[in-house]
Amino acid sequence: KAGVTQTPRYLIKTRGQQVTLSCSPISGHRSVSWYQQTPGQGLQFLFEYFSETQRNKGNFPGRFSGRQFSNSRSEMNVSTLELGDSALYLCASSWDRVGLETQYFGPGTRLTVL
Amino acid sequence: AQSVAQPEDQVNVAEGNPLTVKCTYSVSGNPYLFWYVQYPNRGLQFLLKYITGDNLVKGSYGFEAEFNKSQTSFHLKKPSALVSDSALYFCAVRPYSGNTPLVFGKGTRLSVIA
Asked: Residue B62's closest CA among B84, B42, B43, B44?
């Protein structure tokens, strides 16, 4: 079974631009979560989607948004990019809501903001 | 709110020696605990989890972890370290009940020296 895939793997943007990252979960998985990983802050939860609805949201500004499609694929968008948004963005999927399920992670999208 | 502490940023061990990566947690109620490993330029790979039952949990690649409720710890162990075990290790926790997201520790970098 194919794992979680994320596209693109690398992105370079400039301040003020916006970016869209994509995540395809493992086949059959219905829950997708997004995390931001930085050397200083570690792994921070962004949001969780299940059945096309946002179920949980982390403590990030409104510039960070996401959505989930009927096939469980998910996208996250960051508008008005800031230098501090440079990070590895990880997507994780699980069969059901995070609850007791194991999350499986994709390889991440490395975003660099210049 | 739940939290995870990984008190060591870096652990060095000689190949063939036993290794321990420490994790302590704080959570309301019973915990649901994970260990993940991250290799360079990769996402997180699931190693093992504790839900309930036996305090010694066996996982992938020969790793195991011991849950200690009185000490609120969930240390990762391996009897004989390999150079290929060198990576970044993350402990994560969430309450057993509810649907709150996982909270990750800052990570511990394990270096196994030949």
From this structure: B84
CB of B89 closer than 8 Å to CB of B108: yes
Q: What is the pLDDT of residues A74-89, one digit of tens each?
A: 999 999 999 999 999 9
Picking from B51, B101, B105, the nearest residue to A56 by CB comes out as: B101
In this complex, do A102 and B106 lie within 8 Å of one another by their Cβ atoms? no
Residue B62 · residue B78 · CB < 8 Å:
yes
Shortest CA gap B84–chain A (Å):
19
Distance from CA of A61 to the nearest CA of B (A): 18
Are the C-beta atoms of residues A16 and A82 closer than 8 Å to each other?
no
Query: Which residues, at least 6 apart from A40, have a Cβ–Cβ distance to it below 8 Å?
Result: none
